[in-house]
Amino acid sequence: MTRPVLLITGASRGIGAAVARRAAAAGYRLVLTARTAGPLEQLAAELGDDGDDGGADGVLARTVDVTDWTALSGLVAEIEERRGRLDAVVANAGVSVLTSFFGDGGAPPEEWRDLVLTNVYGPALTARAALPALRRTRGHLVLTGSTAGRGIRSGSLYSATKWAVTGLAQAIHAECAGTGVRVTLLQPGLTDTGSIPPSRANDPQLEPDDVAAAVLYALGQPPHVDVTEIVVRPIGHHL
Ligand SMILES: NC(=O)c1ccc[n+]([C@@H]2O[C@H](COP(=O)([O-])OP(=O)(O)OC[C@H]3O[C@@H](n4cnc5c(N)ncnc54)[C@H](OP(=O)(O)O)[C@@H]3O)[C@@H](O)[C@H]2O)c1
């Protein structure tokens, strides 16, 4: 049987890398993307990259910024050409910075543009690039939101971007009706990916692999089962 092809954005570390490790173990043929080549190629090598294009069945690693439409759409075309199909996408790339709308600390407004573009425009473009290919395979799109996209975080533009991902997933899910494409909104709570701000250092935390297990659960369901939302929190945390 042909092994399914899975594209993960933001795959070089954190939750994306944990999903890649679990998906590799589950038999997916992987396409891994991030902006920085080094860690991405290291992970691809760990997971079985065996040449400049990962061989016929190996791991493809590509530096693609999710805010770059030309690069994203070109990547999907390349995947279909080299692998013959695209079965699933985890639109996971995202960034987080602290903000205050009074300017009481946090990132300066000059940095807000990248936050919004990466977290909102990025998954929207990823969906637009991948959905025609996913329709051909009756595939699966997973969007990484956050529990910050379902609760209030004072002064947080990051939270607002994740509310946008919540809306995006619902809009895409509605448009996918009748296509056979499944859409999952993944909303993890605080996850220890190495960049938790000091103010939250003592809060309960998930491991990236805990979140990856939830993604593989959704991907592993039979075609008639549509896991539309997954909320996974560290125990003891209600936000
Ligand atoms: N950690 C948490 O507590 C938590 C909780 C809920 C939801 N989330 C969400 O989960 C996702 C992954 O978070 P994480 O904590 O694993 O993050 P992370 O460890 O910082 O990894 C982020 C990944 O995204 C890539 N990336 C960032 N900007 C990109 C861009 N413009 N284009 C392409 N790739 C880009 C990074 O590589 P490059 O920098 O090389 O591009 C990296 O591979 C994000 O959407 C985040 O909002 C995280």
TrEMBL record:
Q: Do you know which InterPro entries this protein is assigned to? A: NAD(P)-bd_dom_sf, SDR_fam
GO cellular component annotations of the record = membrane
Q: Which Pfam families match?
A: adh_short (PF00106)
GO molecular function: any one? oxidoreductase activity
* Keywords annotated in UniProt: Oxidoreductase
Similarity field: Belongs to the short-chain dehydrogenases/reductases (SDR) family.
Q: Per its record, how is this protein called by name?
A: NADP-dependent 3-hydroxy acid dehydrogenase YdfG
Q: Where does this protein come from, organism-wise?
A: Jiangella mangrovi
Its organism's taxonomic lineage begins at: Bacteria, Bacillati, Actinomycetota, Actinomycetes, Jiangellales
